[in-house]
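ping. complex inputs:
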Amino acid sequence: MSALASTSRNFRDAARLLNLDSKIQKSLLMPHKEIKFECTIRKDDETLVSYVGFRVQHDNSRGPMKGGIRYHPMVDHEEVNALAQLMTWKTAVVNVPYGGAKGGIGCSPKDLSMSELERLTRVFTYKIHDAIGVNVDVPAPDMGTNAQTMAWISDEYSKFHGYSPNIVTGKPIEIGGSLGREAATGRGVVFATEALLNEHGKSIKDSTFVVQGFGNVGSWVARLIHERGGKIIAVSDITGALKNTNGIDIPALLEHKERNGSLSSFDGGDKINADELLIHECDVLVPCASSGVLTRENAGDVKAKFIIEGANNPTDPEADDILLKKGVVILPDIYANAGGVTVSHFELVQNSQHIMWDEEYVNAQLKKYMSGAFNSIKSMCRTHECNLRMGAFTLGVGRVAKCTVLRGWGS
Ligand code: GLU
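pong. complex structure:
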């Protein structure tokens, strides 16, 4: 099922539980604005190359729209739409004052040099600069982008609008980024995992984990779980997967990845194939890579008792049904990976006050937001007698619908 069909189906199920008027449903589902454009750059060898760029602004009922910019070959109109919609519910679930957006370029960033990436980012920014703004839409990093990308966006945007570092979050500390932002999504995943396991009378240190994906989110998840005494028995990145039932030495793996750029040649585990990883025996499976990895084909073979969605939309609705029937407890993406946008909010708060919080304070606040959201989701689960995904969706969709009506929807 496509990412958009899957997120829209979850939206509709939540809207039904909330008894939302069909006209409100239609309005909430329809994106506020979609922009699709050409990004042509000159490569280092002087040849021209063109990519397609997107920014989808999904909803602004609760505040300026917020969401990452993704550089990945799979970026297309439908995926960006789905991800923008998920941002709307995500910001509402953790109760930060923003709507939802997402953008991206269909490109392979690892095949571009730094100067090509800079040129591409500047063209992208040029194409959207009059559609974004600190009170309108504030981009952030996502898959394939990072603090450096944000610095280029802020610089290019500033050429048209005056010095505006707050036009992005996840920027380098030196130009107003927040301490703890880089680790925030992974740290939020770990706080969410702790909350869920505690509720089930378990803890990280007594559990075994499989982490799929070793980019920014997956590598921080692995590091922080390891620090808390959890045993990571299998990991993967795009170059391969490995397992070690005695527990992978995560600090050694991080060092290896830093030195070699991938984990495939690491000798602290046995190679397995990527499909095997998802169905490996473990207590907790944490998908932290691309969307749609758990499908009706593999869901029946999943052995994990808990799934924590570090990635956006990793579970197809058909897989969801199969897993729920098996008794697997799934902590949904719009809550589990909301740590990034939560610390983006802290970044904007610090920017507006021209102060800098220390990292301990950032992390403590993040924990507070993640615990608060977990309790609110549980309360929705009790009210609507539903699973955690529907608890999170009813919480997020309900909050957005309420603001839409309060601001005068239909008048
Ligand atoms: N790209 C991240 C996400 O998908 C962060 C978005 C943000 O901070 O605005 O949640």
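Residues 66-68, 140, 142, 169-170, 337, 340-341, 344 surround glutamic acid (CB under 6 Å).
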